[in-house]
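Backbone geometry:

***
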Amino acid sequence: MKILIPGLILICVLISQSSAELFGITIRGKVLCEKKPVEIELKLHEFDTVIDDSLDFTISNSKGEFEVSGNEDEIGELDPFIEISHNCTQKPGCYQRSRFYYKTSETNKLLENEVLNLEDRKFNFWGPICD
């Protein structure tokens, strides 16, 4: 019985991996705080039930422009999101984390001209946190 359970787990993993499909996403856009471009680090992740997968990271340029992309084997659809830790509209010594979600069932998705407004509270994921 002890050998049977690990064997069944292995078979389930192999079956799920064989039915997985490679998804890709590229997101290009601009980051704004108080309607001004922001030079800031962005992280592209893919949502998973247990641990999110890290796909890419970049720093937007002085015009706030960025591009992130990544690929992931998934069953069904890709649940990518961009996460940004920032202090836009926060008191000194405070920051918050914003998430921008881009669910897709397309295998190769290109999103251009995305505007990530750090003031928009509907994207606040965590915070504010103050020292």
User: Anything to note?
Assistant: The chain is about 10% helix and 55% strand. The domain at 4-130 is CATH 2.60.40.3330 (Immunoglobulin-like). The chain has a mean pLDDT of 86.
